[in-house]
Protein 1
Amino acid sequence: MSKGEIYLINALISVLPLIVILVLLFKRVNMIAAGLVGGILAMLIGGISLAAANKIFLDTMPLLLTIMVPIINSAIAFAVFKSGGYTSALTLMNRAVNGRVEMMAVFIVFLQAAATYMSGIGGGTAVVLAPLAFAAVGVIPEVIAGMSIAAAVSFTTSPASLESSIYSKLTGVGVQDYVSFMRPYWIIFSLIALGIAYYGAKKRGVLVQPGSPVEQNTSTDAELWRTTLPAIFLLFSVLAGPFVNKAVGMPLLSPLVYSITTILLIAVCTKMKINDSFNALMDGSSYILTRLFGVGFFLTFIYMIEKIGAFKTIASIAQAAPDWLMNPAAVLAGFLIGVPAGAYVGTVLAMIIPVTVALKFSPLSMGFVVMGVGLGSQMSFVNITMQALSSGFQIPIEQVSKGNSPWVLMCMAILLVMSLVLV
């Protein structure tokens, strides 16, 4: 054999574990099980000993559990959900716009974006908001698409999300730095999502449903504003906290301060008692902690695959493409993988980001890749947010995916242009 043929065979062998993992994920195999198969292949191919594999595992798990700010933010947002703050906000908006469906639709998508950004959990937000949205405006495809897009661009850029945490650990860029330079693009795509919802509601003119929880809420406006106050404070702290802290020269709105303050506001301003408020805070941490634990296992197997040179192989192949094409190609690849493997956005990122690091992509370029994977997940039958929307709006998930497709593809086209022009 020639040297070129030997190199090609070695290259194919090195990426085989990744291919196997992707195939298993597409078949909806549990991510840890899929990663285990790939990890065992990597050990056999690269001669990685059990001692070396165990060291990788013990080094990886503690790293993920040091990402405390996303865990804290996610837990606080869950407590705000439990207190009824978002239901109160929706009721206030309904009264303010006198049942105008297009304004209600815009506010529903705004709540989806804001709540997901604060909690980092698109599915958890949709579980709460989708039934309320169904009762308030009925089944409007564009509203559902707006909620999906808002969720995708929010959980992929949130200071509280698993995806931001994975990005930070794999790139070395701090979570707050990542959130800061991605915030303008989160705002742009959130505004697009609001526009989509407005267009659909205005076009279809579905009225607020009589007897909905929003209509039946008999609380006074003052009571509703009081219940909404913890959500407003948390949103302000997450978005404006860094600027306030810099302006006053001290951590006035640090995670410690705004977490305790939000919980105390819940106890004072809502019907939840102080014990229930703190219990909700503790319960809220379970979602992201559970997933970080699973991702820790998966990343262990990915790091084993890295040891046999898989990502360097992919990077060397990609370097043959024209420089101007590499960024949009990576974004498109992330999107295409996100569609079938939408239940595992964090897992997909764990496989794609090391390639972009090897290719020396800029932090912004890698951020666009993360957002691309998120958008792809909003056409996936296995995505949690999609399933929550299907359940909340009482329609088949195929209908959700079909209604989302043209709008998600439009956003994807915009993202590809951005990745071509802005980086």
Protein 2
Amino acid sequence: MSSARYERLPTSASDDDIHLADIDQDADAERAPYQFPVYPPDPRFHQPTPPAWVRAGLIIFVIFCLWLSYAIRGMHPPPNKEAWI
């Protein structure tokens, strides 16, 4: 076990602490805030908007694929009833 005794920390600041806090605030006010460097924008993240006819073509293609999958679903051959006998 430790032989050090427990001591409560002061709950109010002493006059010396207040004076040191004023000095720290003055030093912070003199320092300029850090500014991040400015880089040119990356063109990979600024893609041009696709034309309207490409968007319409994509929507028509998706609708066609849905229709084709629905049409193909019903094209399976009828079951051979003679094979079950």
Protein 3
Amino acid sequence: MPKAGTFPSPASPGGTGTPRARAEPGRIPSDDHALLMSLLQEVTGVEFLHGLDIRRSWIRNGKVYCDEVCLNDLDLYIWYAGMARDPGSYALEALRTLSQDIPVVPAPGRCVTGLDMYRAHLCPSRAGLPVPDTVLLDRRDTAAAPVIAQWGRAPLKPRRGSFGHGVLLIEDFATLRDLAGYLDSTLAATAEGTFLLTDGEDPERPIGARRHA
């Protein structure tokens, strides 16, 4: 019989109507979680192993273990949980390692893309969908002066930021230059190294028709 491991992380008790339950990223509201587990119990022909938290696993010789369970020996692993967003974070590495042997849902590669604002912009853009015009910047580089001159101003976003943290409005090149110098002198080499400038105008308007300062 096929075996599937799961870890859909539930929200804190309190029900779906409470502000706390709605404000927990990476967790499923309590009522929805109970419904999901009930539906899984009705699935026949599959043995489910629940509570296999990838964040508390350990890896030995390319095999991912939760307690005594080797996740690589399963036929499927399903997860939904909040975790560190850094590219080298343990949980993402464990998911990538596991995905080399069995299907992992959601796929860690897609998760990494979704956490990366730059790649998340590229995917729909290359698929032909309208997205805001964006510029990727190295934190040590001030080569975007022509873009600031053209747009007039633009929000600067950390490439792997979330929930609006670290977003700054750049209204002139001098601000961008000073910020680049500050970040280069104060941030460690392992800190956020690239940023996005995003044109906030209508993405369906042709780029050549956009404003000039």
Protein 4
Amino acid sequence: MGEIEESFKLFMDWVVFLNGLHKLGQQILQEYAKHLEAYRRAKSEEAEYITRVVASAPSHHLSDYLGPGGWLEGTSRTFAAKLDSATTRLWIYLNEVHDCLDHLTGISKDAIKEQSENDVTVQLERFSLSVAGEDEVEAERARQNDHQSGRISFSEYSSMMALIYNMLQEDYEMQRKIVEALGLDTPSDVLKKYCSVWAEQPCVKSYMIDRARSWVEDLDQSMH
């Protein structure tokens, strides 16, 4: 196995790890959405209780009647703390993704260090054009052709790494914008859309990831 093949396998190991991280981030965002809705319900019940107290005893001190409803305030504070925790974990997640992307950058740069920047740019442009219009059916056909043709070229390995990195980088930027936009005033429909977009990963072509993973499988089989 050559150096480029070893670099590609290592690169894809990190891609698989990032996929697992993505699922963790998605879970945390869903938790945030759940806690935000619960927080809003608690605050609404708290406001309704105060309104009823004021309406039923306008001539007395409000503090005389708020004691029995103190659990409502405690509930809202509990969910507020859970929201803070989820937000902190989302930022930790983003930092981990950023570190992984740095690793991918290092691996891909080492893999193409013998090539000039112009050569790499030309290779990437050619590869991008060849896969730009692929859908899942065409990608499956390409995987079959890859398997039948045998050895993958240096330019295909390096270009695939560049394409995957660009997709994952765009996905990271999208996730970061979502986390930056989160707040107690985030509308429920917007938060639902955030969760949906996060799960769908519109920037990532999963069939291209699958094609790259099939190259790794072929490499593993060639070693046996």
